[in-house]
């Protein structure tokens, strides 16, 4: 009895104590049920002790279920805070700071899953329903996840917040990836995917070298411009938040050469087998790779590991403008609505290049010496390969061309109005070219029609659905939209304005080395090459330029393996195998190797059987690029399904989509008809110096009947008439009005409950 009284007094004292982070352990909702679990009684030690001391042994265990109380969640929170230091930035949240909240929430989720023996369904569908604002978690929840008040405005925010008024983080930067199918983690919550047999999957590198050798086929009419536009759009859509090298902020943390106690906890190295045909020549046993940061969910809800996208999901040309207001300001001149450029060829009368990257000059850039600089653009990977730099340059020039044209028509518009209107038109052009030229080549007419992706020829398209999340899907980012890696050529060609081959350069020599563009006229020659060089076939063959030489250091004879990266990323995301996605897309699945014949070449099936234990183990990226293409499409049915689903979300879930009526951002009917004239060929004609003839659709090889080359000045390729933007008022957009209608006040964003 004395012992019981002593324990009760100790417990009462503990209950009244403030924990080390400044709030009482007991919340007003403490003993309430946060989540009721069905089935036989399961209880945490914490809940058991609380109810024992109260004399009500687990009152929520009615024999048919168990309750996880808010007190139990608070106890897990306090325990996790002992291990995890959560960042509390005063202004913008950096990815590594946001990750500390993600780590905390994941730690709490793992504790609850282990303590209560939670099933897959309870982790995926139960934990995320808990209202964590009733727990101590509210102390650390980032303001933009805790609740934001939105007001519709004419112009998009750079960070994508408030695109959806009711769900402010949908499609915003730093939001978690969506999932089409629940994740398959080895432990049900966090560890990378393993085989359905319970054993390890084959090394990513073994899959790469066995399934994706360099055969170099060409079997379609797509040009390298398909890859150029595809990568430009990929960098508009997605960049996974990962730990970065503290010096150049780009390469992954070094993992392979560090002892275990000095490795970054996110290290997930790609192992190289001893008999590797290439890497054994250089005694390479391992390639550095780090896992993506865990993401907080909106409302700081609990659940299995999710990764986050540091870019906005919607198509908003953040490749040109960035995803932060402060960075966008840095990219601007501050007058005439113009973007900063580098007038390096002014004396020759040629157009400007992108500005020099002077802060952290080694970020994403391999510099042969300290006097060489890469370029600065809206997206950090602008220098990842020279072709991509060309696309960034093209669209930055287009912005300035639009701003200059609008200024000539509307003399009274100030810098802010000119910038925002030029940006709005430029984004609409990117959206139109993507859905009018890129997707039809990629997906084919039948898939476009099935998923509602065909653009209207006239009038408005009233298809906005506020219940559709335009955020990026994990299987799109981690596998399907990486289809372009199959199309990559071994060398990138330069052609003359007369459409004659000049020279080529190995792809690996152009990665993070865009210096050729500092030679006058060379950018135009690369654009001519993009329109005339055929892309590799869409198949399981991948050039060694990216399977053995990716991000090769200066003077090195080997680099990294992009295909291994693709599979390692998919596994650490917990993305289910290829067969699960065939099932999701309504396609036949296979439980034996014999059943796979027909969906891909026989030789491919035999090779899969030699390294995987079961068809269900095949990685989504590997299976997707190995499928036979659909008629009229560059893709097989699984990737076509995933990409078309994503593109449907991006169109239907974007409140600023260019075809929409009745929005503050809507174009007039006359302006919309002008936007519909936009073509990639016109962008190239208007924003290069020497090119005077192009095929009408540059993503397809020229053909004198169906895709003829025409003079830029012939009038056959239409131009947007900016006079439709004539504003006969006498006021520009007052900056204070702009901030009121479009910007969430910083005080609100940084407000803490």
From TrEMBL:
Residues 1-16 form the signal peptide. GO terms for molecular function: heme binding; metal ion binding; peroxidase activity. Transmembrane segments: none annotated. The keyword Heme applies. It comes from Drosophila mojavensis (Fruit fly). It is found in: Secreted. GO terms for cellular component: extracellular region. The keyword Amino-acid biosynthesis does not apply. InterPro entries: Haem_peroxidase_animal, Haem_peroxidase_sf, Haem_peroxidase_sf_animal. GO terms for biological process: cellular process involved in reproduction in multicellular organism; response to oxidative stress. Heme b binds at residue 485. Its main location: secreted. This is Peroxidase. Keywords: Heme, Iron, Metal-binding, Oxidoreductase, Peroxidase, Secreted, Signal.
